[in-house]
Structures are given as C-alpha cells and as structure tokens.
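User: Hey, quick favor. My workstation is busy. Could you predict this chain's structure for me?
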Amino acid sequence: MEQAGESNCEVQVVRTQSDHADLTPHVYWAQRHGEIYLRVELSDAKNLDIGLQENNTLQFRAQGHGAKGDNEYEFSLEFLEPVRPEINHKSTQRQVDIKIRKQEERWWDRLTLQEKKPLFLAPDFDRWLDESDAEMELQAKEEEKINRISVESRVRKDPYLGLKRGYLFMYNLVQFLGFSWIFVNMTVRLFILGQDSFYDTFHTTADMMYFCQMMAVMEVINPLLGLVKTGFFPAMIQVAGRNVILFVIFGSLEEMQNKSVVFFVFYLWSTIEIFRYPFYMLACISTEWKLLTWLRYSLWIPLYPLGVVAEAVAVIQSLPIFDETRLFSLPLPAVLGHSLSFSYTLQLYLVLMFLGLFINFRHLYKQRRRRYRTRKRKVQ
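Assistant: No problem, here it is.
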C-alpha cells in the first residue's frame, strides 16, 4: 500500500511539469531568392519576442491561441545560411507573419541547417514557388524596375518646381485676402447701412479692387510662361472685361461711382473669387477640400452670368454720360463731323461681352465636367 501511494505521487508531479511546458505552434515557410517568409499559426498573439541569435538561429516566443489553446508558444530555427539581423513581423488576429532577408540572394535547398525537417515546420503552399518560378518573378520585378527608371529618366524634373509653386501659392493667397476684405467690408456695411451702402461702395472698396485687378493681369501671363495649365484666351477675356468695367466705366466717370450697380458688380466678383483663389492655393500644396472643390466648380453657374448682366447694366448706364462728356471720343475730319463718341465702342463691347460669356461659360463647363468625370472614374 505504501509503494502504490509513492507511485501515484510521482505520476502527479510529472503531469504538473508537462502542463507548464512551452508548446510549439505550426509554422509554414516559403522563400524567394532574397527573402524568407514564415507564417506562424497563432491567433491573438501578444508579448511577442522575436530575435536572431549569434548562431544564426531565430528565436520565437509569444502568448496566443494555437493548436493547444491559449498558451505560451515558442520555437527556434537554425537557418541553412546567414540572414540579416533585421526581422520584419506583423501580427494579425489569425497569425503572425515574419519576413527575413537573406545575407546573399540565392536559392536554398532547405530552410534549416539540420537535414531533418522539424515536425512543426511545413511549406506555405499559398506562397510557395519553385526555383524556376521564383527566377521568373525576380526577372519580372527587375524589368519593371528598369522600365520605371527609364520612364522617370525621360520625364525631366523641373529644378524650379518648388519656386513656381511657392509663387503661385503666394499669388493666390494675396488675391484671396484682397477679395475677402472686399466681400466682408461690403457685407458688414450692407447689414449696418442697408441700401445706403449701395451708393458709396466705390469710395470704400475701390482701392483694394484696383489692387486685385491689377494683380489679376498675372493670370494672363502665367499661362504664357507655362506656370499653369489654364488656357490663355479665357483668362484674357475675363481679366480684360473686368478691367474695362473697373478702370474705364467706374474709374473715369465720377457719375458712375455713386450708382448702386457698382455694389452688385463688386459683390458678385468678390463672391466668386473668395472660393476660386483658395482652391488654387490649396492645389499648390496638393491639398483638397471637397466642399471647396464643389463650390469652385459650381458657384460660377449662377454667379458668372449675373456678373455679366451687372456689367452690361453698368455699360448701358454709362452710354449717355460718354455722349454728354465726349470723354475718350475719337476726333474726326471736319467733313465727317466733330468726333466719334466712345459710346459706339461700348455698344460694340456689349456684343463682345456676351460672346465672351458664351466662350468662358463653355470653358468653365468643360472644366467642371472633366473634374467630376475623372473623380467618378476613380470611385468606380
């Protein structure tokens, strides 16, 4: 009876030691000429300890859910040939992926130094390639790399790209601040003074509008210098048309400066520009706000025709003033009369104004369609 009790006690001790022994997870491997890929079947792994010993042996230890449930698992692999000490690994909910680079890019006959494969190690058939297949994959990567380098070599890098972007960013920023000042000033005065603010708009905002429109001449020059891809002709139509209204109609006729049409022209101009300029400004730093993009490509649809109508009203109101003052009249020989009133030029300009509206409207519509068609394709 005493001998039997001692035997039972020994068995109990052995079982306790076995319960606390570290377990080995299932490990799957594959290789390329330059890398080794290991997939450890251990889900929800934590406390990962992965390192390379001096004898070219990989040591792995972690806690997780494997073949024996939630336990601490470990294994070691002594590689056939030297590998680099940098080890990349990624743990997911299902497994642990390990990538190791070989010291020399060559095909190994087996993974471990010992000829007999460890029982826990098996090929990863999802990533497995024969040596010939791996060589074809390597050759394809090399050809792709060569082609990419060839394409990049053909495209000449602009050494002044940073300087150009900096200039365009500052230009759009200055214009945005200028038109924002005009818009805010007119809006505040409208809420405080009501309709009375219509009649002194020119005297309170003309200086800033002069500055912004003189700066806008750069929008005609920039396409000529290749700084922007915008067409030269649409930019010239808009800048020239606005400058005629500002400098010729409003600037040269004091009688026009107190009319309410000035308010509507300036307000429509500034409303369009406070969304257009920040859009281009952010584009210089490769940034996009979806709402701002939509406003830039949509707000012009109602505002641009309204702006042209307001400009046409200003021209029509100025015709009798030019006839009366004979300002900018063209002298004629005595046989033909005294002079040719500038109002005839403005009547011709009215026709050209609506022709320019059609050209610019079509240009802006094509921009909008191209923009959203491209984005729609990317989404699909």
